Amino acid sequence: MTSALNSPPPSQGGSSGSGTGAASRGSHPTHVSEAAYEFLLTEILHWVEAECTSSSAADARKRRGGSAPVDFDARTTGTGFTGILDDITETAQTREERAILNAERAAAKIERLGFDVGYRLCERLAQHKALGPPPVPSSAGKDGPDPSASIQLEAVKFLCKEFWTEVFRKQIDKLQTNHRGVFVLKDHELRWLRRLPPEDETARVAAIKMLAFPCGLIRGALSNLGISAVVSCDFLADGKNMAACSFNIKVKS
Questions:
Q1: What average pLDDT does the chain have?
Q2: Parallel, antiparallel, or unpaired: how do β-strands 2-3 and 229-235 relate?
Q3: Element (H, E) at 20
Q4: CB–CB of 87/70 below 8 Å?
Q5: Which domains does the chain have, with CATH numbers?
Q6: How far apart are CA 249 and CA 219, in angstroms?
Q7: For residue 1, which of 56, 161, 176, 215 is within the disulfide window of CB 3.0 to 4.6 Å?
Q8: CA 106 to CA 206: how far, in whole Å?
Q9: What angle do CA 25, 31, 33 make, to 5 degrees?
Q10: Across the strands, what pairs with 183?
Q11: Strand (E) positions, 90-195?
Q12: Percentage, residues of the chain above pLDDT 90
């Protein structure tokens, strides 16, 4: 892997406005409180999980309503309560499987929400940005540089700089690529995870759920730029620092 993110962060300020305009903007801020947004994202996660759980429970009730009633007197004769114990064990296994399925459904739904947001936000940010390599002379032939690889690299760089700064007020800390459609984006302090306690299993589970949203953001932004990819995430410090994470992008061929 080679590092591909070298340029300094974009300028955040401007001096073209008048003093009156600046004072007006200062007295009427246009940004939402960061804490309020984090609370909103947490509530969205809870809502999605609750919706998936209630949907799964409704499906289970329908299945039970359509099944034949159990004759408990027949099940307890001969072998005692073996039949009932088998039912209890089966129910526990079913509940565990249902919980795993609900978690997968919730993560998929959160990722889709992130995809929609990332797609629309990228459409706004990249309206006047051309992503592509410089013209390649026709004499380069088949041995010349691959235009698609250059486009992918420029798109991911845009994602690491302008897009990430718009969402998290900072650039990606490190970008690595093998120049074959695989990119690793490392953020050493993701703002949404800074308040989670380290080395805590409950916090780790919460972080994994929350990371589904930025994975969707990345996939949606790339999709808007014409790049289909699979995005996954991982922790850089093995759970010791929840805010240090990486996003792995694999461009579909």
A1: 76
A2: unpaired
A3: helix 19-27
A4: yes
A5: 35-60+80-134+145-253 (3.30.1380.20)
A6: 8
A7: 176
A8: 12
A9: 130
A10: 177, 249
A11: 174-177, 182-187
A12: 33
